[in-house]
């Protein structure tokens, strides 16, 4: 019998190598409880995306195991939604139909599905854009559509791979703020890849710092939720960033 304390996701001593045989990840232990926001932080090429794919069952480990609700993962997890750096929207569909895509690929779209999609578009400030094509939107708006589409799936875990990295600094901060607000409303569990330490400090409850495929440190971010935009100006936020920077500087 699984205890109440079974984490949603547990990675045990994960090692991974791609087909070319080069090891990419070594002995990673990580766990994620329901409702947590966990950031994977590290320099380019340290293995963040590979770890995210392993967590979602898109890759299988070479050694160790991934447990989802206490059960070994053997393939892609259906309860997981992904948001990538590029929004990957289909330009021959309207914004609304892009948001509905996870549903329309599986079954006939109902009126309730349309209402839910409209809800997410409205929640992310895109109500006016529903009938436009993705190419008619700004980069920030396209990222919002990708986030709305992920929420349509009502995922138990949201995996995000540098979703805001291509955006300008202010738009990125607005999206981070909106993401936190929706996560708080939904009680979402998020695994979020970034190489931006201030993004990790602002969003994460925990930050796992990766260095050349190894977990170098795991840090708790001591700030309470909800975190407002004002927190970015607070001494405690700057202290978190400075702490992460010192840890990151130890990596190469
Ligand atoms: N399909 C693949 N086949 C072989 N090696 C790969 C493949 N994908 C990634 N790698 C290698 O695995 C290592 C980790 O890559 P990964 O994309 O996980 O890092 P990352 O930290 O997400 O990088 P970035 O921040 O630049 O996106 C790199 O050395 C990369 O070259």
From TrEMBL:
Task: Give the signal peptide as a residue range, or say none if absent.
Answer: none
> One of this protein's Pfam families, by short name?
ABC_tran
Q: Which Gene3D superfamilies does the protein's record reference? A: P-loop containing nucleotide triphosphate hydrolases
Q: Report domain ABC transporter positions.
A: 9-237
UniProt cross-references to PANTHER family, sorted A to Z: ALIPHATIC SULFONATES IMPORT ATP-BINDING PROTEIN SSUB, TAURINE IMPORT ATP-BINDING PROTEIN-RELATED
The record's similarity note reads: Belongs to the ABC transporter superfamily.
Protein name listed in UniProt: Nitrate ABC transporter ATP-binding protein
Q: Which organism is it from?
A: Malikia spinosa
